[in-house]
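## retry 2 of 3
previous attempt timed out at serialization; input unchanged, resubmitting
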Amino acid sequence: MANDWATFGSDLHLELRGTRLRAGLMDALREAVRSGRLEAGTRLPSSRSLAADLGMARNTVADAYAELVAEGWLTARQGSGTRVARRAAPRPPAPSGPPPPSGTGRGRTAALAHNLQSGTPDLASFPRAEWLKAYRRALTAAPNESFGYGDPRGRPELRAALAEYLARARGVHAWPERIVICAGFVHGLTLIGEVLRARGVRDVAVESYGLWLHDELLRRAGLGTPALGFDERGTRTEELDGLDGCGAVLMTAAHQYPLGGALPPDRRAAVVDWAHASGGFVLEDDYDGEFRYDRQPVGALQGLDPDRVVYFGTASKALAPGLRLGWMVLPQELAQEVAATKGAADWTSSAPDQLAFAEFLRSGAYDRHVRAMRLRYRRRRDQLVAAVTAHSPETRVSGIAAGLHAVLTLPPGTEQATLRAAAWRGLAVQGVNRFRRPTVPPTLDGLVVGYATPPDSGWQGALRALCGVLP
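## retry succeeded, writing output
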């Protein structure tokens, strides 16, 4: 039996791709038919009502309908409206694995009007002029040998500059010979996974909420990923004592991703004590440690025990992910093994970029940029909190003391409906349960809102769109 739009509209959203509205609408409708979300005989809304819902001209919708009728996707009859044609349409094969994480900018959000996904800084604020100056100075002074294959640990100039900066800014006990430069956190975690598996480690514990990609990388290395419990104080580190065969734990201790909050002092001490007693390692992802707003930054966990904590940092949040610059500060017993594994793969960041970043650090340009962005992001955070509080006083905003995103707690059972409403408004935003490990029962509905991503020109519009979808 034919459905009309009202009976299923709350379960369907159209993702408008491309730069032309009509073409984007046509692509979205075709995909809805192919995927089975629009069954044969389904009645579509009138061009007037759909145009009002999508915020576009009625003629644009009418022209798209007419072209799809001509292609055979839709049928139109006087008095019967526009319906999905009865035709054979092959469905795409089921995906072989989990979907790529949101916020990566890989096509799905390109045509959306507003992007509030987490994980990306304001790319328009990249300090191009200062970076170019640092690059010129670095290339002018670069020795000829720096353009060769070099040390798999990375350029010594950058490792020395990072050792000084991390000790000063993050409380990390770093020695240049224990630092390995990598192409970002994913690259570093891949290397550590290979080394741990070669050492006979069976499992690496993970937090209840985090990126599925990190689990996937560890599993590809042959490691299990048991999830630790989570409560109002953060990750339950005491559960590590009951995990047999667990040789490491992956944590975002300074600012838990995505729920926010710093690991309390007693649990910080407990996880380091577990590593010391068991001979295991703590893998510390300090992904946005520089951005704390209401008090001094929480120091890195690595400072408590440099011989049991592997510290990961990157330039992805403070500068830009496109630089592909990351670093690991390693315990002495792992440093040579990780460097050898990296050298065997010959996967590294470019030497000129490393030299430029070293100059950027030494000149003070990095500190100035971080201070400026901290003020910028704090203003956005405050505007987000004010807007949500004014529009939806019952919505709790949390995880805002640090980082580039906030968590908006929703009434139970409303997360998916809110995400569908956001998609209809052209707003890209993530649900909390997207980050929940499969073995962890659902206990929270909410949105993870990245307030760093939109350019200044789109920030207020993104805020209005967000408030418009809140229950």
